[in-house]
From TrEMBL:
Gene transcribed to yield this protein: cmk
Pfam families xrefs: Cytidylate_kin
EC number(s) given by UniProt: 2.7.4.25
One annotated Gene Ontology cellular component of this protein: cytosol
Gene Ontology MF, one: dCMP kinase activity
Positions of the Cytidylate kinase domain: 6-218
Broad class of the protein's primary localization: cytoplasm
Localization per Swiss-Prot or TrEMBL: Cytoplasm
UniProt protein name: Cytidylate kinase
Length: 224
């Protein structure tokens, strides 16, 4: 039957990661947070003093980067050059940097190659910006999650507070999200856009569990 591929796309803060984790657990297959890969690239650039918008230097740097994804229990662990950076890639500076490096074609090509290799070897639930349109265009199950900018900013701000990051305001988080929306939608290679065959779900007024329920219903119906 081959591997099962579930693609979940959408803008920053739409709930993709949380919902993708829930779906992967219910289906009993691997969850891949592709955004974490770009965050790892951004973290390395920041550590080396490289402007994350500097295409030439970032492209050179990514030729010598080692990114691995493993799973411990129900959690994804991402390694950058052998170091577990799962917690270090979630700060706002890295979030903006990730959007910048993701706009660099050389970075996307390297990360997409890795993502496709994982999907060929295992059944996956994969979330990102271009999974259904570019990374896994033939995925059987495609979803596009949306939410208002205000709701997405509130969610991301709450996540940061829960992680003890309090040196940023809600308004700053909203500006970061608006910047990432613009950056992701206008990039040269594989911009953020809803796949024609994706099912769109507005998560603004729904809990993560409710969205996961909707996705599982669609998957169940398509199996019949």
């Amino acid at each position: 039957m081959g591997n099962i591929q579930v693609a979940i796309d959408g803008p920053a803060g739409a709930g993709k990661s949380t919902i993708a984790k829930l779906v992967s657990r219910r289906m009993g297959i691997i969850y891949i947070d592709t955004g974490a890969m770009y965050r790892a690239v951004a973290l390395k650039a920041i550590r080396q003093g490289i402007n994350t918008q500097d295409r030439e230097r970032v492209s050179q740097m990514v030729n010598n980067i080692d990114i691995k994804i493993e799973h411990a229990g129900n959690e994804q662990v991402i390694y950058l050059d052998g170091e577990d950076v799962s917690g270090k890639i979630r700060i706002p500076e890295v979030s903006v940097g990730a959007s910048n490096v993701a706009s660099i074609p050389e970075v996307r090509l390297k990360m997409v190659d890795l993502q496709r290799k994982i999907a060929r070897s295992s059944s996956v639930v994969m979330d990102g910006r271009d999974i259904g349109t570019y990374v896994l265009p033939d995925a059987k199950y495609k979803f596009f999650l949306t939410a208002s900018v205000e709701e997405r900013a509130k969610r991301r701000y709450q996540e940061l507070v829960e992680k003890g990051i309090t040196n940023i305001s809600l308004e700053e988080v909203k500006k970061d999200i608006e910047y990432r929306d613009m950056n992701d939608a206008s990039r040269e290679l594989a911009p953020l856009v809803k796949a024609k065959d994706a099912i769109e779900i507005d998560t603004t007024c729904l809990t993560a569990e409710e969205v996961a329920d909707k996705i599982m219903v669609h998957i169940g119906e398509s199996k019949c």
